[in-house]
Hints:
By secondary structure, the chain is mainly α. The chain folds into two domains: 2-398, Na+/H+ antiporter like fold, CATH 1.20.1530.20; 406-537, no CATH class. Helix content is 80%, strand content 0%. The protein has helices at residues 2-22, 26-39, 50-67, 71-76, 78-103, 108-117, 123-130, 137-166, 173-204, 208-228, 233-251, 254-281, 283-290, 295-327, 329-334, 341-348, 354-361, 370-398, 406-435, 440-461, 482-508, 514-537. The radius of gyration is 26 Å and the shape is elongated.
Amino acid sequence: MTLELFLLLAAVTALSGAARRLGVPPPFVLVLAGVALGLVPGVPRVELDPDTVLVLVLPPLLYAAALSTAFADFRANLRPIGLLSVGLVLFTTASVGLVAHLVAGLPWAAALALGAVVGPTDAVSATAVARRLALPRRILTILEGESLLNDATALVAYRIAVAAAIATGTTTAGDAAGNFLLSAAGGASIGFALGYVLAMLRRRLDDPLVENALSLLTPFAAYLPAEQLGASGVLSVVVTGLYLGRRAPSLLSSSTRLQGQALWSMVTFLLEGFVFLMIGLQLPTVLDGLGASSVVEVALAAVTVTAAVVVTRFVWVFLATYVPRWLSRSLRARDPSPPWQAPALISWAGMRGVVSLAAAFALPTQMPGRDLILFLTFCVIIVTLLMQGLTLPWMVRRLDLDDAGAAERTEKAVAVADHHVARVALTELERLTDERSVPDSVHEELQRHLEERVRRAHAVLGGCPGEDEYDDGARPTDVTALDEAVTTVQLRGQLLDTERAELLRLYEARDIDDAVLRALQQQLDVEELSLAPKTRAS
């Protein structure tokens, strides 16, 4: 298994690199490569272990996605996210269950289990595909928020349906609702409590290696206890990630943040690639389970169930978008109805992925129709991932939702904030210079650096009203005296603290968004690390 894992990760790296060079989204290349590799005679089979996905792969991917989620945007769109992550999953479970019962002949409980399996969009697929597109920010936030939370709803519904299918007794609607609420409330409570404790702990740590090792363990610390207590491990991970992601700007040191960003980028890259490759490799196992089943009947069931998954999403998204606004005047005033193109795009972005496949593989062997459920799940994943995922860029352009100016707007917002923060630092520099004896060369070096940032902001913005560009004349650049170097580092450190405090004040006041905060904070983090060699030299 060790050799197989190494070969899989090597294949992920090679295929992802080739896909990026060719300009093709890596998820689709990996899925198709997995399918092709699985059909080659003599190639050893690599079967999906549900525990590997649900315990070792899903928690870190959800946690990484939650950490990078713009919390303010997530909170502002909690209503549509909730309607999709709870309402749509339950609606899909019921609708697909009805179709599977009538067309595929599955018993009711098994049919509803299938509905719960294919109910949630995949967090990995949604993030991997949507973030490569120039989507409007609200649509991207809704899709990412849905993919973060809907697994919790689906897995609770899944457990209830499986229990009903293999148990001799019956599960009432009241019991199911009670179990769902307890699981959700328990998962959210555990996640919030863990996030609070970890925030307090990390505030007292000052070792990037220890902090990021703790960060790697956090998703498992959130998932496993919640699952052991019968709560939603998925929701616990997401809440912990959202809480710590919201606190990270004021909680972590510059070196911890930069190291953590690199660490989670690598982890996400490998796990996402592993997930997509594993999906394709499962085709032989899925086909073997069908045995001598009628090809026509199985094909009809696959087409019907897949169509039900796609159509159900369209129906729910449009109803959930417009009906509440028709019924509530205050909602219409607060949040006017979007053009039809927005719900159409959200409806089309319903890719399923490895969580659905893992849930299908995890079905007990005594589940009625287990092999058929596994095949239908695989068909839904392949069709939605390839058909919808590959055509999503075309749909974005066709619906005229390509937000091509987003990068330019963010660049200008960053420049405005940087201009303001640099000028605040210049004011603080003058105050510190008045309070203590500072060599002229030190003052000029720090002033030159801050003024250069103001000039760069002018260049991006085309000039700021009411502000004059600074003179770019020649100034001394060689500060060689040891005491002056130490003073420069100390003063620059104080100015960085001032800039960070002002940046956080702007963020808390909602004058800047998460993207601007992260861009400027990374800039300040890199600058602080550049001071370290000078500090060590002293």
